[in-house]
Amino acid sequence: MKHFLLLCCFWIATCAVITAQTTIKVPVENTIKTPTDDSIVIRSDHSFKEWTAIAGIRQWDHTFIELGAAYMAGNGSRCAFGYRYYGIGLSADYNPFDRRGGLHLSGWTNGFMGLIVGGDINTYTDFHSYNLGLKPFIGLDWERRFTLTYGYNFQVVDNNLSGINGHVLSLQYRFSLKSSREKI
C-alpha cells in the first residue's frame, strides 16, 4: 500500500507540472485595451530543443556507471524559478564489480525551482538472466546539466537477479551535442 500511495503522489505531481506548462491568460481591467480582447497573454520568450550525451553514476548498495543520450525540449523562459522543459533519454549502465548491465528508457519534466520528476523503464542482466523494472524518480536539476535524483525500482519481472539496487540515488551530467533556440 505504501508503494501504491507513493506512485499516486508521483503521478499527481507529474500531471500538475505538465498542466502548468501551458500558456497562461491573465485577465486585466479595462485600463489596457488590446485589439482582440481585454486580457494579456503571457508567452514564453524562447523555446529550445537540445540533444545531449549523459554521463552519470547510480548508487545505493551497488555502484553503476551510466552513459547515454537524451533529447530535451522546452517552451519556458529563464527566470528566477528556472526552466520549464521535458526530456527523454536512453542510457546503459554497468557495474564492473558485480558484472551487471542495464538499459534505461527515461522520461522527465522540470517545472518549478529545479524540481525534476519522471519515470524509468529499466532492465538489468548478468548476461544469463534479466529483470524488468519501473522506477519513478524525483530530484533536483540545475541548468539542464546536473541532476540529482532519488527513485525506487519496482520489479515487474523478477528472475532473482542479485546486485540490483531497489533504492537508487543518481547523479548525472548532460553534455550538449546539438542545441537550437528560437523566439516565439
Features:
mainly beta; eight-stranded antiparallel beta barrel; elongated; 59% strand; 10% helix; Acyloxyacyl hydrolase; signal; single chain
Q: What's the end-to-end separation, in Å?
A: 45 Å
In which order are the strands of the major sheet placed? 3-4-5-6-7-8-9-11
Overall pLDDT score: 80
Written as H for each helix and E for each strand, in order along the chain, the element string is HEEEEEEEEEEE
Helices, by number, come to 1
* Strand element count: 11
Name the poorly predicted regions: 21-32
Q: What name is given to the CATH topology?
A: Porin
Principal-axis shape equals elongated
CATH class: Mainly Beta
Biggest sheet overview: 8 strands, antiparallel, barrel
Rg, alpha carbons? 20 Å
Task: Quickly count the domains.
Answer: 1
Can you tell me about this structure?
The chain has one helix at about 1-20, and strands at about 25, 40, 45-60, 65-75, 85-95, 100-110, 115-125, 130-140, 145-150, 155, 165-180. It is mostly beta strands. The strands form two sheets. An eight-stranded antiparallel beta barrel has the order 3-4-5-6-7-8-9-11. The chain is elongated, with a radius of gyration of 20 Å. The N and C termini lie far apart (about 45 Å). Mean pLDDT is about 80; it is low at about 20-30. Keywords: Signal. This is Acyloxyacyl hydrolase.
